[in-house]
Amino acid sequence: MSSIGRASTLIAAGTIVSRLTGFVRSVVLVAAIGSVGRAADAFAVANQLPNNIYAIISTGLLTAVVVPQIVQAAVHPDGGRAFISKLFTLGTVALVVTTALATAAAPWLVQLYAASFSPDQLALATAFAYWCIPQLLFYGLYALLGEILNARKVYGPFTWAPIANNVVSIIGFGVFIALFGGPVTTVQAWTPTMIATLAGTATFGIVAQAIVLMLFWVRAGLHLKPDFAWRGIGLRNIGRLAGWTFLMIMAGQIAGVVQSRVMSAVSGDNPANTVAANAMLLFMLPYSVFVFSIGTAYFTQLSEHAAAGRHGEVRRDIARSIRILGLFIVLSTAVLAAAAVPASRIFTTSSTYATDAAWVLLAFLVSLLPQTVLFVIGRTFYAYNDTRTPFLFTLVQATVVIITALLAGQHLPAQFVTAGIALGQSIACIIQLAVAAWLLRRRLGTIGARSWMPALGVFIVAAIPAGLAGWLVYVLSGGAEGWMVSGQFLGAVGTGVIGLVALAVYTGILALLRVPELTTAWNTVSRLFTRR
């Protein structure tokens, strides 16, 4: 377990720095184009296009297929080097072709995701897309190399490389503001030079991120070389696994298209694509710091146990990871719920917009804990090279997302459509978790629920007064009219103050209850500062 602790600490430290610089990046971007408006939503849709394909590559094909295959190939006499070279060559060829096709299809892709945009807003989004879609190639290379490094238990570079992207973007967006002022919110104000400066900066940041990761090849012992001899590497088996994963991710993407189209209909003065993206950034902060950092190391170990047929160890991995992840995630949910308005103020240009955006964040937070448990359960199926079952429960989730998004668009006031979509996504996640847990229990006999569910209950009991204490601090500060929402920087400070109060109450209650996971959590956090 000490190796997992060290790996988790390294990933968590990199993720924290990455996310903090990412927050600064988003703040500067808001200063350049605003948080609510047609120009901001046009860029959000265009810049999201390569991210959607990256989601397919990173959380789909690579996590589900590549990591278990590399772990199994490690037993080869060469340590799996030949297999990795062939796989990397195949992946690079596929990325180049996909990027070329997607760039050529930019007008149709924008139309697909934002059918309700006005003609001039569609034109601006398409111009942004031509600059942004080439990110696909470098997102893919970053994801492919990163998962290879993770499978070889080299976790740090994959986590620290995005900092380069954030630094480049902060500088580039700052140059945009210096040259053209900001925020530039009207569609008609944008010139080709402005478009190239903003979107070109976003793409160059992804290029820098991929280049930084490439520098760690030799250190990891990855002497990769082009190898087009793909026969004999198990393409048929990989294709079978990837086929179900592709269908699973496509179901999610179809649901995402529906959500984006519904939000595009309320773009303008209401929370829409940009607000949803920034709310998801806040939602992903604890998910990335804790779930990815601890869960990534566990997934590699879990894959090894599954490959060796040690099912008892797999069940223990499930229970241990859910308990320790749950301790952090339940607290994070309470903090973000209490600080929803100040946290949203970080990415908005006024207190009114922050209040509207807070409803979107709160709706997403409903699924933060279920999403965490689902992460562990889903990757357990992947460890057993089962991608068919995740497709089935993801299909259920995608169906619920589509239905709830359409209902939100038809029945909610424009001001709350995006929040309704976020709540529908949370409800879909809870249903997906119930189905996934039932299916995994059928496979393993038990998933240790009697071990981790009571622990989660204790965490929730402790989080309720912690969250209320944090919310009371917000109210005493003046609430929606107070200093915590008077500016973006003060929004960040206020969020930090609320978080510290909630943390003190939460840890105090858990210490009184003598919760054993608190010691593990303390050791994980202390490593960040002592580097032990």
TrEMBL record:
Pfam families in the cross-refs: MurJ
Keywords, in A-Z order: Cell membrane, Cell shape, Membrane, Peptidoglycan synthesis, Transmembrane, Transmembrane helix
Bilayer disposition of the protein: Multi-pass membrane protein
Predominant cellular place of this UniProt entry's protein: membrane
InterPro entries: Lipid_II_flippase_MurJ/MviN, MurJ
Domain of life per record: Bacteria
Localization: Cell membrane
Keyword field contains RNA-binding: no
TM region(s), chain numbering: 7-33, 53-75, 87-110, 122-145, 157-182, 194-218, 238-259, 279-300, 321-345, 357-378, 390-410, 416-440, 452-477, 489-513
Protein known as: Murein biosynthesis integral membrane protein MurJ
UniProt organism field: Microbacterium sediminicola
Organismal lineage: Bacteria, Bacillati, Actinomycetota, Actinomycetes, Micrococcales
